[in-house]
Each structure stands twice: as structure tokens, then as C-alpha cells.
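Request: Mind sharing a record?
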Amino acid sequence: MSQTQRNDFFYSYYLLTEINLSITNKSPLRVGAGKGNTIGEPDLPILRTPDRRAVIPGSTMKGVVRNNIARMLKIETENLSCVFGGEVKEENKGNKQSIHVGSSVIFSDFVTDKVIESTERAHIQINLQTGGVRNLFSVEYVPENNTFKGKIVGRNIPLPTLSGIVYITSFLLNSGIVRVGGFKSRGYGLVNLSIDSVEVSLPSKSFNYKTKITLSEKEEEVSVNAGEKELSVKEDKEYKFKVEGMNEDFLYKVKLNPGEFLNVGKAVSEGWMRR
């Protein structure tokens, strides 16, 4: 076992995790690009790449995850800054001072795997005082059963914590409790989230490090041990992840079983809910 390393957020990298995800919309979905301003364009177009694939921005997904983790665990969003970035209180010679830290969880944009043809619906606004109809407008949307591909990258966040965050997010989205994008009250934004792959990069097969990247904001010592069949990570308690493959290429790259990753996340999140 190596000597415990001190880690102030991202001064050094000890644990890098890449999770590739698929989001498939089960109802019309729209993430807007503002108001249309060209002839023939919908009043409210969707966000697209230059080659006309639809996009869910990483910032949108980060907001969905952060806000709903806070609601589910009854934590103020500002108290999640050690994980998602923001202002953090630090001790300095007996005095507390605020420092800004980056997010330990980075979200890529989620982009459809094919070009999305323009599909529109007409909507109206209701005058709440008179009950009258006003302002007919057209909305562009992504039709059902299109798949968006993207990824989450974790930096030094303990693997059990990250698995718990992903599990809660997938549970809330897949059960329809939480939706993505705009016009949710009109039936838009129902999606299914699935994990395609999980890969962890490590500096060595066995090491300890200290980190404040936790939901509790308290410094914890994390112990990591990688074997051919399982990856053991001890945070407040020990969790074991099933290994599907490992190779050494500058860093040790460990491929984890996505289903077992979610199973660990379920156990972690159940522990959080009992606190």
C-alpha cells in the first residue's frame, strides 16, 4: 500500500473516471436555441450542431443532475460545490475564507447519432385573466426514440460517490419523475438514461489519497485497490466494482461492468437516504 497522498481538489490527479452514456427520448424533446429569426424557421427552434444533429448541452445535464441530487438528498445546492464546483469555505491559519473550485464532474454535450429533420408543433398561450387564446406559435422538437450520446468525466471524485450520483439521476429520469428540456408541462422531455461504458484511469494499482470532493464536504481518505476481477474503493465503507478488463498505457485503465457500477450506486444512494 502506498503512502497516503494529500489532494487539494485537483492539485494532482489520482482518480479519473469516464462514463459514456446514452439518452433516448420517450416523448417529444426540445432544448431551445432562442427565437427563430429567419424566414421559414420555427418560432422556437431546437439547438443543433452545424451538421443538423440535435444537442442537449452539457450545462443542461449538469443542472438536471445537481439540482435533483440536492432535492433527493435534501442538501442545499451551494453545499454541493465540492462536487459540482463553486464557492467553498477553506481554513487558512485559523480563519475561514472562500475559494472557487472547479467541478469534479464534467458533462459533455449530448448529441444525436443522426441528423434530425425539422419537426414542428403549434402551441397557443392562454390569457390567465380572461381565459382567451392568444399568440399562436410554432415549436421545433426532437421526435420520440432518438438517441443522444455523451459522457461524464469525474476528476478525483471517489468512485462510490460518483456511482451514487449516476444511479439517482438514472432512477429519476427513467421513472419519469424528472424530465429534460422545456415544455415539460405539455408532455415534453421524458427520457431514458443508460450507461454504455465505465473506464477508470489510475496512477497505480494500489494507493490512498485524501479529498474533500464528497457530498458531505468533509475530508475523507480514499483507498483504491485494482485487481484483475474487481476494483475495491473504500470511502466511508468499502465497495467493490466488477472489472471487465485492465491495461497499462501511461496510466492503468480499468474497464468496469456498467450494470455492477449502477448496483454499487444503488447501495451507496440507499445509504445516503438513511442518513
